[in-house]
Amino acid sequence: MLMLSRTAASLYWLGRYVERADFIARLVEATVRLDALSATPAGEAAWESALNVTYTDEAFAATGARADQASVARFLTIDTGHSGSIVQCLDMARNNARAVRTALTREAWTAINRAWLLFNSRMRPGNAMATLNLVEAVKAETRGFEGAILRMMRNEAVWFIRLGSAVERADNTARLVDVKYHLLLPEGEAVGGIVDRDQWTTILQTVSAVTAYRWLYSEGLEPRLVIDLLLTRPELPRSLAACVEESVEMLGLLGKRTGLQGGADRMARARMARMHKTRTPEVIVGGLHEWLSAFIAENLALDRAIAQQFRFI
Amino acid sequence: MGEARAFDEIWGHGGPTNPRAPLEMLAGWIAETPREELARRLEAAENTFRQLGITFAVYGDRDAAERIIPFDIVPRVFLADEWARLSAGLVQRVEAINAFLDDIYGERRILADGILPPDIVFRNPQFRHEVVGIRPPHGIWAHICGIDLVRTGPDDFFVLEDNARTPSGVSYMLENREAMIRLCPELFRNFRVAAVDSYPDRLHETMRSVAPPGAGSRPVCVVLTPGHFNSAYYEHSFLADSMGIELVEPADLVVDDDVVWMQTIAGRVKVDVIYRRIDDDFLDPVVFRPDSLLGVPGIMSAYRAGNVTLINAPGNGIADDKAIYSYMPEIVRYYSGGEAKLPNVETYRCREPQALRYVLERLPELVVKLVDGSGGYGMLVGPTATKQEIEDFRAALIAEPHRYIAQPTLALSTVPTLTEKGLAPRHVDFRPFVLTGRDGVQVVPGGLTRVALKEGSLVVNSSQGGGTKDSFVLLPDSPQLQAQSQTLGGMFQQQELGS
Amino acid sequence: MRLIVEHRTRYRFSEPQIRLIQCLRMTPDDTDDQTVVGWSIDVDCDARLRQSRDGLGNRQAMLYADGPIGAIEISVRGEVLTGDHGGHVRGTAEPLPPEFYLRETDRTVAGEALGAFVGGAVSGLLGADTIDAATRAIHGRFERIPYVEELRDAATTFAGTTATGREMAQMLVAGLRTAEIPARYVGGYRQREGRACAPHGWVEAYADGEGWIAVDPSTGGRVDERYIRVAVGLDTAGVTPVAGSRLGQGEEMLDVALIVEQARRQ
């Protein structure tokens, strides 16, 4: 039986929203740590950049609150007034999961539902500890979801979820690098100084890449190497290279199942071919921001092509 | 009011210390399992239901948008011979319902023979002229029936209501059983309980058996839900899931050239059989309510052309309508040739002057129902009503007698139920599910027991505070009929060791 | 009489539609009074038409068209031979007995005033006389207007002093039913010399022993050879020539052009 287009759309968005919730949780966690290590102005800069990374800076500005830990952490986790908080992402994920209940295993559904229920309890991040507890719980549930997906039958349901995750993750990582790279250091701090180092460590923590970095690079922490890791090393699951490869792989499996190829397949394969030729030093010389902007735009175009190819309506 | 104590299905009339003989062992289990242990298991069951999302939506209340229906840990039990009699009555009744529908939308012999007054059919909005002239495959209209029964004594069962449109609740039958097997395994070791888990397979087989003639050997069957915000969505997804078929929403279906298709990731696929959980009114905006946003435009044309089977058939409301209900004994007799094995609750048709006079004299004793109301609304329960409520109904009855029927207040049976104050009898009703396919009628050995959780209350509707119980049907010659000396404390310890 | 019908229905959409599904009740049937010599429905885009008969015996066609559709025109062209049997309707497809047409619908709730009015008009009369009397009464009570923005239900129309021909017919249907006379709404065409044409509606009512009798409250008399009967229903909604559903955004605009004329001798 061929999958319903609507089901495919819901699974794809389920994958995207779970990934987004997980990413925001990691970002909040890493920023709390960074904030704790830094002097006040640097700490606030970190929270502002967290808003930039998640596309929520404008929505936050509209609240009129100061960008300190308490308010930004609250805004990014439990605020239901905008679509960029963890609770809203989980709500959307759960709505999509509910709409395709039959395509999921009980285990996968239960993981989503449990993550969603976390926010139904009275848990309210007031201090850093409470925030860390909450994001830790979210991460545990999204990990549970990922595990459940891996244990599901290898069928198109899983492929659409993973395709959604891959597209979302590519956007998140690109955005993270773009914002952090341009983050202004507080006055008086030297490039390569402690605060700068901490910023890059935060990035690595956000994408769970601290260990990978140590494995792959013998040098100490260097921004160009962090960029190299996050852009071009497919060994790291959250690198752009890995996301690009995963998109091609998932589309390939779906194409085999349906017997059809389309615009999304071609676009994803062309992107992978270019990615394989990409060298980090050239990207930096040519302008990292421009390169990332083009990547983000192309990722969006791929998202559109997927919707068209599988008739998401 | 001085109401006599109702018949309790486990304790009989004798109370906890003197239960009905065949159920002594169960009564012992209830008596000896510590309350806290029952409460703990109840909580575990409800947590599972919440995690699975077995909820119903309460409209207009975002925070409480999803509630679970309360569950009770003490099962309701039918003895094998009780069940055999019930089943025979259910089969007879559902056969008659199908025969009636096939006749009323076809030749209308029952009207020609003067069994029913024609106006209660023709003036009834539930008689859908839109399906006149259509004959579904094998003449089956009500593939899935839920017959609501009440009990007043060991052998006294009555049909309270027939549901031949889209009876819901079967997912509770299955999930309640799952929970009971997990939480009270000792009961299943000591009783031989008929399994209900074949229901999805039987339903799927029923669907396949009524596919349109041109559908081929592997007809495509789907469940059609209004969408995941519908209060019964869990059940819709549960059924599709356990049958291994697609759960579709209206937007997934397209009718083209009198054929129903579903949109898939690789194009359109023809659909042959649709178990639709959308009411007639909303099914097809071209034919029924034009303002329906839930429907599938054109689906009735595909149905009329014989290219798709709809389960249940549109138009079935005329068979389970409250006005028709009072004629069910005559309808059953007309089509089966014998007396109804399952009696109706005695019903006064207020449209008849004599009956109206009787009802007006005895309003405080009777239950008065709107012919076209449902879910416990538009109803007067005389014994618990205020003077004002009774007078309001009296005026309504005099103004429009044809819209009402009245019934005596029944002493509904009770089953021991775990309440905040411990175990206490609570009134129950019962909805068994009956499937009709090409090869005949079958009754699934179980059903949905609804329980009124409020002391003395007779209203079991989930929208008004009712809960559910598992319903055990015991297999013939269950050992517990003889073995009565075993202590149930022993059963409880086995459970502790096993878990 | 030999009547020629040309009926064009044009829908334009402010935004292209993804899909259209329409039920066309635009096909007359043969009866003892009318013989359909030729009849065709043409659609100006790629569409599929499926003929069938509904539960009341009307002929209908389902139209299925895929988008993008910016506009669609449905052209009906036909020729019918009609006769005059004094309003007696015979030879029609009747899947349901007359008693069915006592059923009240949302649009034909009569209300006390209309019920009393028709009751008064028919009191003391029997058979077909009741139907003629009620028809004259409705005809005499209202000033006929050609058009209303939105068709009103029977009780609402009765509260006023003006009515369109179709509203009068719907009132008459509702009123006759309160007097326990089976009545139904008929949609079709009427030829009028030198006048602009619009789809017309009238009434068929059942007199025991005489059968269905067709009357037109906008003339006050019985239906004759200038009428072409297309569809019957419980009320105006039941005979809508084009009832449909579209998938797409935006507004729709409707133009109808109708010519009903007597065929010239060749």
How many helix segments of chain A?
A: 15
Structural class, from helix and strand content of chain B?
alpha+beta
As a percent range, the share of strand residues of chain A is under 5%
Give the domain tally of chain A.
Answer: 1
Distance between the termini of chain A: 20 Å
Shape of chain B: globular
CATH topology of the domain at 349-409 in chain B: Dna Ligase, domain 1
List the total number of helices of chain B.
17
Q: What would you call the quaternary organization?
A: heterotrimer
Helices and strands of chain A, in order, run as HHHHHHHHHHHHHHH
Main sheet overview of chain B: 5 strands, mixed
User: Biggest interface, and residues per chain?
Assistant: A-B, 27 and 27 residues
Domain DUF403 (chain A): 3-310
Protein name (chain A): DUF403 domain-containing protein
InterPro entries (chain A): ATP-dep_Glu-Cys_Ligase-2, DUF403
Domain Transglutaminase-like (chain C): 157-219
Structure, explained:
- Chain B: This is Putative circularly permuted ATP-grasp superfamily protein.
- Chain B: InterPro entries: ATP-dep_Glu-Cys_Ligase-2, CP_ATPgrasp_2, UCP005522.
- Chain C: InterPro entries: Bac_transglu_N, Papain-like_cys_pep_sf, Transglutaminase-like.
- Chain C: Pfam families: Bact_transglu_N, Transglut_core.
- Chain C: It comes from Sphingomonas yantingensis.
- The complex is a heterotrimer of chains A (about 325), B (about 500) and C (about 270).
- With about 325 residues, chain A is an all-alpha fold.
- Chain A has one domain (about 5-310).
- In chain A, about 75% of the residues lie in helices and about 0% in strands.
- In chain A, α5 runs antiparallel to α6.
- Chain A is globular.
- The model of chain A has no long low-confidence stretch (mean pLDDT about 90).
- Chain B is globular.
- Helix content of chain B is about 35%, strand content about 20%.
- In chain B, β6 (about 220-225), α9 (about 235-245) and β7 form a beta-alpha-beta unit.
- Chain B has 17 helices and 22 strands.
- In chain B, α1 packs across α17, α2 crosses α6 (about 170-185) and α3 crosses α14 (about 330-335).
- A five-stranded mixed beta sheet of chain B has the order 3-22-21-18-17.
- Chain B has about 500 residues and is an alpha+beta fold.
- Chain C has about 270 residues and is an alpha+beta fold.
- Chain C has two domains: about 1-80 and about 240-260, Immunoglobulin-like (Sandwich), CATH 2.60.40.2250; about 85-240, C8orf32 fold (Roll).
- Chain C is about 15% helix and about 45% strand.
- Chain C contains four helices and 14 strands.
- Chain C has helices spanning about 110-120, 130-140, 155-160, 165-180; strands at about 1-25, 35-45, 45-55, 60-80, 90, 145, 160-165, 185-190, 200-205, 210-215, 220, 225-235, 240-245, 250-260.
- In chain C, α1 (about 110-120) packs across α2, α1 crosses α4 (about 165-180) and α2 (about 130-140) crosses α4 (about 165-180).
- The two termini of chain C are about 15 Å apart.
- Chains in contact: A-B, B-C.
- Chains A and B meet through α1, α5 and α6 of A and α2, α9, β7 and β9 of B.
